[in-house]
Amino acid sequence: MNALKNILTAQQLTSLRTAIVTIIAALMLPAAALGADVTLQWDPNSEPDIGGYKIYYGTAPRTYGEPIDVGNVTEYVVKDLKAGAKYYFAATAYNTDGYESDFSNEVTWGTPAPPVMRIGHVDRVVINGDASITIAPGAK
Description:
- This protein is of the alpha+beta class and 140 residues long.
- Helix content is 21%, strand content 29%.
- The protein contains three helices and six strands.
- The radius of gyration is 25 Å and the shape is elongated.
């Protein structure tokens, strides 16, 4: 440990502190900051030959990716949406012959943005036990 302390310059120690604080901050982020889930619910189609529903969504109005066939249910959770983004959703119904309805009304939802974490100055770094540290000059 003393040998490590003697070879670190002030700039390298600052870089090490920044790296450690960044790693700790990343570990402390809540799962919601990494993405979000949204639960969609709709009224059932009254047709006797209903086969199921498809969910469409994207980040621009009426511009969707591939649909999600959710089967014959009236609730579905779309998972892992990008934090801080606005999404547009629509649904269709299809019958047992595979004929698909027009799109439902479109609804929008904005996922929460990740929290901003402010981290103060780090006075020291304590390492208990053995440590192997690589510091690149000028790293931040």
